[in-house]
Write a structure and sequence with these properties.
Blueprint (H helix, E strand, L loop, with lengths): L19 H8 L4 E10 L7 E10 L42 H14 L9 H9 L5 H12 L27 H8 L2 H6 L3 H16 L3 H17 L7 H4 L24 H27 L17 H9 L13 H19 L10 H23 L9 H9 L3 H26 L12 H28 L2 H5 L3 H22 L40 H7 L2 H21 L6 H10 L8 H6 L4 E2 L10 H8 L41 H6 L23
Helix pairs in contact: 2-4, 4-5, 4-7, 7-8, 7-10, 8-10, 10-11, 10-12, 12-13, 12-15, 13-15, 14-15, 14-16, 15-16, 15-18, 16-18, 18-20, 18-21, 20-21
Length: 697
């Protein structure tokens, strides 16, 4: 495979997610324009609704336009500040295209330390052997390096990165940029020849791109991984492959001893087990991603006729080809995917249009309530049937850490409790807000079971984070999807804070619920941590005693829990810049605002894109015609003559479908508002370019 072309600094998206002071210092002299587009988020999303998102497009400086060398991402460089790789210490090997061995082996160690327990379709010894034999794909190794670099000691790259001016330190996630861009340059040849390595690489690339503050990349690359897996037929049973594993039942729940303690794993057996786990990993990631975006999972259970991974599969992949099986004290892989299968069904139900009540009949409402109850009952029954060593608890988590399966352990339990909370909350909505006026009101006794279940799941999420912080918190930093549970639990405690204030006869003021009002508790159990001095929490608008009488004991508990969970999201944002916007959403949620304005959220983060692709030779005219709005005109009303719609007078959410029945539009309004919306002014300067793959939310 030919070496990837190298990139200049103006091809790196610079998206600082650190403090505002740092952002201002780095970007104050960098011209940019704000561009908007719309994204749809469903009921389970962090920010539900059809939301306008803002991204910032910066103008490249002439001094950074050279394409002669690869430049790592840094902060937005000014005309006099360009961060480059050290010319005397190349980061990549010219022959193999891989990182230098001194860096590569450390990156692999870090990857399997932070991710290997979760991406259990990879085997470290087998991967190292392939690298030494020159058979490892550059794409996969580049993605692995991009994920690992954010957790490496920054001093490891001191010889390869030129220092920034003014003693500015790079954020941890920024060290991943050279590896991420090399991986992205290999996407086209990778998808041209589908392989299981390509599936694994695309799945990992989704998280690496999210770490570079590209939430859209998380969705796009996960979808590409799923499509490639389907192209390879990983979701279909292939008897000619499975039949090679003669002598034992592959679908059984037996342990590793089924193959015999002296058995040596053959390559075809290893590949089959790895492919089964890879397919279900793609399935689980797609489900969790749809949970966070409020969309329906792309891969349905009825489309898969491949068995769930067994303990044997996990043991085989962990040992690797040519090695003997290794027994583990606990094997979480089969149970994690069993739970995610049920989670996927719940997500599909909650996020389908049919599940969103809008004037439904009594029969439809009762049928929907019955489906919610069936989903919840099935999930609870499956969860309670988990083996004792898999159930949640501090000792079991410690055992999972020792077995190298802490990530799978937290993912299993947090995804389960998050879905149970969603289903319980949906039932509460049925009982309260959607109660028909002609039916007698339901009592608090009727609501209590669902309310208790909801509170129990929220508390379980908080307890899991507490235990992880006390024993080993690496999964909470490295696994992106865990922040979904932390976010929704934090929102629950935020509502508790607001309700407690209102029950005391006053309305919550913005300053009362601001982050500065709640000191961050220590890394111990939030259920047992409260501000030791109430004056730290209470604002000096009244006497300390008066404020104490206003806020109840439960409100103080909710505050401590809220800040504890929010701090976990902030900690993850140091390594994944994309998690910064999740934390920013909480700024609005904590004041009781349900309908979050993502424009405010995205504007608060230093998110920059380049306007590049629209200026590529041979494609600029078509691209400009696609994105430039039509001439100004008024919005059509039903029955009126044709007119032109523009970005200035068109709001998709406010216009009913009947508006367009008699109109002959010269553009597709739906496509218009789901694509990037530009004005001609944004194309007047040739320095603006667009690279959609790097658009961040």
């Amino acid at each position: 495979m030919s070496r990837p072309r190298e990139y200049s600094s103006n091809e790196y998206m610079t998206k600082p997610a650190s403090a505002a002071e740092s952002t201002n210092r780095r970007t104050s002299d960098t011209p940019y324009k704000t561009v908007h587009y719309y994204r749809h988020h469903g009921p389970t999303a962090i920010a539900p609704g059809h939301k306008q998102v803002s991204v910032k497009a910066r103008q490249d400086n002439d001094e950074t336009s050279s394409r002669d060398q690869m430049i790592p991402v840094s902060n937005i460089p000014s005309s006099k500040q360009t961060s480059t790789l050290s010319a005397s210490h190349p980061l990549f090997d010219d022959d193999s295209g891989l990182p230098q061995p001194a860096v590569l082996w450390q990156l692999l160690d870090i990857f399997f330390e932070y991710y290997g327990n979760f991406y259990c379709f990879l085997n470290k010894r087998h991967l190292i052997q392939r690298i030494k034999e020159g058979k490892a794909p550059v794409f996969l190794i580049s993605v692995i390096s991009a994920l690992s670099a954010r957790f490496c000691d920054p001093g490891m790259f001191s010889s390869y990165f030129s220092p920034l001016e003014d003693c500015v330190e790079r954020d941890r996630w920024e060290f991943s940029a050279p590896f991420l861009e090399r991986a992205k340059s290999l996407i086209v040849p990778t998808i041209s020849l589908p392989t299981t390595d390509g599936v694994a690489g695309l799945l990992l690339l989704a998280f690496a791109d999210f770490g570079d503050n590209n939430e859209a990349g998380l969705w796009m690359f996960t979808g590409m991984a799923l499509r490639m897996a389907q192209e390879l037929g990983l979701q279909r049973h292939r008897g000619d492959v499975s039949d090679r594993r003669a002598g034992h039942t592959i679908a059984s729940e037996g342990d590793a001893s089924t193959l015999g303690s002296s058995a040596t794993i053959e390559m075809d057996v290893f590949k089959e087990s790895s492919e089964v786990i890879l397919l279900w990993s793609v399935f689980a990631h797609d489900s969790a991603l749809c949970n966070g975006t409020g969309r329906v999972p792309s891969l349905k259970r009825h489309e898969i006729n491949v068995r769930l991974p067994t303990k044997i599969d996990a043991a085989i992949v962990r040992a690797g080809p040519g090695n003997r099986l290794e027994s583990a004290s606990v094997e979480l892989v089969p149970y994690m995917f069993s739970i995610m299968l049920l989670v996927s069904q719940s997500i599909e139900f909650l996020n389908t249009a049919a599940s969103q009540i809008s004037g439904h009949s009594h029969v439809e409402e009762e049928d929907r309530a019955s489906r919610i109850e069936n989903l919840r009952t099935t999930m609870l029954r499956t969860y309670r049937a988990l083996p004792r060593e898999v159930s949640f608890g501090a000792n079991n988590y410690r055992a999972a850490v020792n077995a190298g399966q802490a990530g799978s352990y937290l993912f299993l339990h947090l995804q389960f409790h998050l879905q149970v909370a969603f289903l319980a909350q949906e039932s509460l909505s049925e009982l309260a807000e959607l109660q028909p006026p002609d039916r007698p009101p339901r009592t608090k006794t009727t609501k209590k079971p669902q309310f208790d279940l909801y509170k129990s799941s929220i508390k379980a999420i908080t307890d899991m984070l507490t235990i992880a912080k006390l024993i080993d918190d690496r999964p909470t930093l490295s696994l992106v999807y865990l922040n979904q549970a932390f976010f929704h639990a934090a929102c629950a405690y935020s509502r508790d804070m607001i309700e407690e204030v209102r029950e005391m006869g006053s309305s919550p003021q913005e300053e009362e619920l601001s982050p500065s009002a709640f000191p961050i508790p220590s890394q111990t159990s939030p259920s047992m941590v409260f501000p030791q001095d109430s004056k730290q929490v209470l604002q000096p608008k009244a006497s300390a005693e008066a404020r104490k009488s206003t806020f109840s004991f439960l409100a103080l508990t909710a505050r401590a829990n809220y800040q504890f969970l929010r701090q976990a999201i902030k900690d993850q944002a140091r390594f994944y810049a994309g998690s910064g916007w999740v934390d920013a959403v909480l700024d609005q949620r904590e004041t009781g605002l349900r309908d979050v304005d993502l424009t405010i959220v995205s504007d608060s983060i230093g998110t920059f894109i380049r306007l590049h692709d629209l200026r590529e030779p041979g494609g600029s005219e078509a691209a400009l015609q696609k994105f430039v709005p039509p001439a100004p005109g008024d919005i059509l009303q039903p029955g009126e003559d044709q007119g032109n719609l523009t970005i200035d007078n068109f709001n998709w959410d406010e216009i009913p479908p009947s508006t367009f029945q008699n109109a002959e539009l010269n553009f597709d309004p739906q496509a218009f508002f789901t694509d990037y919306m530009y004005t001609e002014e944004q194309f007047s300067n040739n320095g603006y370019e667009l690279e959609p793959s790097n658009m961040l939310v």
